[in-house]
Amino acid sequence: MKIRGQHYNTIYVSEDGWSVEIIDQTKLPHKLETVRLTTLGDAARAIKTMQVRGAPLIGVTAAYGVCLALRDDASDAALDAALRLLATQRPTAVNLRWALGEMDKAVRPVKPGDRARAAYSRARELWELDIEINKQIGAHGLKLIQDHAARKGGETVNVLTHCNAGWLACVDWGTATSPIYQAHDEGLDVHVWVDETRPRNQGSALTAYELGAHGVPHTIIADNTGGHLMQHGMVDLCFVGTDRTAANGDVANKIGTYLKALAAKDNDVPFYVALPYSTIDWSLAGGFDIPIEERGQDEILKIDGRLADGSVVTVDIAAPGSPAANYAFDITPARLVTGLVTERGICEASSEGLRTLYPERRENPSGIKDNERKHG
Ligand code: MRU
Questions:
Q1: Model confidence pLDDT, tens digit, residues 148-170
Q2: Is 82 a member of any domain?
Q3: Same domain, 167 and 270
């Protein structure tokens, strides 16, 4: 998507043809800076420290991490070590494990001398696939916004989103934001309520930044505001992303998603979850087995802010000495989800719904079919 009229991707191979540039998301919204990754360690650190974050982007970054590792050492042992290291950087988003599986399949059969080349080629395919899939998610989700716009006689359609499932969480388009960008680009009057998303504020720092930079009307709200807005008819539909979706349609997403889904259910507001097929963990029958990342207390006890002179400082915001618990994700049960918006279309959040869209999983629930590599 665009920042001040210029097209950006969150990650790309540099002009040297091998090192990898990322937008450093820990610096946003105060500074737009890119960082150059040249080693496996750089890629692992970028994922761990959340310079890159968001389920699809973590996967693509890990894929390029494998490329950087194999440039240095293309042996089986080095490949194993790279896959092991990258897999342990974040626990909840399954796209990380999926992308590493794809890289392993593409690279292991190749003789060591050709592995780095094969790795860059597969990583590029995953990069392109992410863009294409998110575009398709957007095209399916767009119809939902169009329906609401038609029902409202062209009045503003108000969408609520949580965290950042935008293009900054992917290579481009975003998942939850893709329908919004497509609606906006088509000239529909769409406005987004952006949950600030404590404790890391991915909503106010990242979603608001990217919507603003692309020119989409939006308003940041405190995390607790959504229920009030829904009670007053000020939210037409919710779109959120997911870091892992179980085979029964339960979804793990940023902490607080569950509360929004409860409020949406109570107020008859449709609650849609947008996801690429790489976010589905077919091995999990239900969402409560999804590992929930627990992060450091400082994300709750301190906050970064920009001073008038442009400098960014960190300040304490809590009662000195009080401990904090920082669960990064929660599970929204399928019964609270109106529909899953995927690259193949929209389905009910249920085993049956998912298997209708992905019929190959009916016969082969744990295996990966060849056609999935091409079409998702
Ligand atoms: O901890 P983060 O910032 O990586 O969490 C991101 C989210 O929860 C997103 O909503 C999710 O990855 C969906 S991504 C398009």
A1: 999 999 899 999 999 999 999 99
A2: yes
A3: yes
Q: What is the CATH number of the domain that holds 124?
A: 1.20.120.420
Confidence label for 108 from pLDDT (cuts 50, 70 and 90): very high
Q: Whose CA is nearest to atom 15 of ligand 1?
A: 165
φ/ψ (deg, to 5) at 239: -125, 125
Residues 25 and 117 in one domain: yes
Which one of 69, 103, 128 terminates a domain? 128
Measured in Å, residue 355 CA sits from the centre of ligand 1 at 24
Answer whether residue 133 is part of any domain: no
pLDDT of residue 151: 96
What is the distance between the alpha carbons of residues 198 and 115, in angstroms, rounded to a whole number?
A: 42
| Total structural domains within the chain | 2
Task: State the helix-helix crossing angle for 112-151 and 95-107, rounded to 10 degrees.
Answer: 140
Residue 68 sits in the same domain as residue 203: no
Q: How confident is the model at residue 302 (pLDDT cuts 50, 70, 90)?
A: very high
Specify whether 243 is catalytic. yes
Q: How far is the CA of 202 from the centre of ligand 1 (A)?
A: 8
Indicate whether 188 belongs to any domain. yes
Ligand 1 atom at minimum distance from 240 CA: 10
Q: Return the closest-CA partner of residue 248 out of 165, 330, 108, 348.
A: 348
SS (H, E, C) 217-228: CEEEECHHHHHH
Q: Which residue among 130, 243, 281, 330 is the active-site one?
A: 243
Gap from CA of 254 to ligand 1 centroid (Å): 6
For residue 156, give Cα distances in angstroms to 69, 208, 237.
49, 18, 12
Q: Can you give the residue range of the structural domain that contains 165?
A: 138-375
Pocket of ligand 1 (CB under 6 A): 53-56, 93, 163, 165, 169-170, 174-175, 202, 241-243, 253-254, 328
| pLDDT tens-digit map of 29-87 | 999 999 999 999 999 999 999 999 999 999 999 999 999 999 999 999 999 999 999 99
Average pLDDT across the chain, whole number: 95
Q: Across residues 269-275, what is the average pLDDT?
A: 98
Whether 152 and 121 share a structural domain: no
Substitution candidate for ligand 1 out of 167, 243, 300, 340 with most atoms within 8 A of CB: 243
